[in-house]
Every structure is written in C-alpha cells, then in structure tokens.
Amino acid sequence: xxxxxxxxxxxxxxxxxxxALRRQSIKDYVLSHxxxxxxxxxxxxxxxxxxxxxxxxxxxxxxxxxxxxxFEQTHQEMR
Length: 79
Prior knowledge:
Blueprint: H1 9-21, H2 26-34, H3 41-63, H4 67-78
Helix pairs in contact: 1-2
C-alpha cells in the first residue's frame, strides 16, 4: 500500500538528512518513529494499560463516574 503526505522542501531535506545519518531510507526512518517496534505483546499491553489508566483518571475527574458506571447507565438507557 502506498501513503503520500505533503511536506515542505525544508521538511523533506530534514527527513532525508536524518535518515541518512542513521543509514536508513526515509521510509524506514519515518516508520521507526511513527510505529516503534514493540518487543512483545505483553509490553504492548502494558503500554496500553498505562495510557488507558491515565486517560481513565482524567475522564473520571471530569465526568465523576467510573467506566463501569457509565456502561451500566448506558445499558439501562438502551432498555
């Protein structure tokens, strides 16, 4: 699959330079920064749990309900 993005000449040159310094193609350089390699499924799940825990705390502070409370309320409203 092909993906195209618009970049300025300056951005292209910067990407090209950074990739060359790491002896990578621009494609490999960009992909390594956008989609970092995760060593294991367990590590990926840990990262996801950490991200969600932070977001859930923030959401709870704003909403004042837990995820389960929101689920139960929504389920009741659908009946």
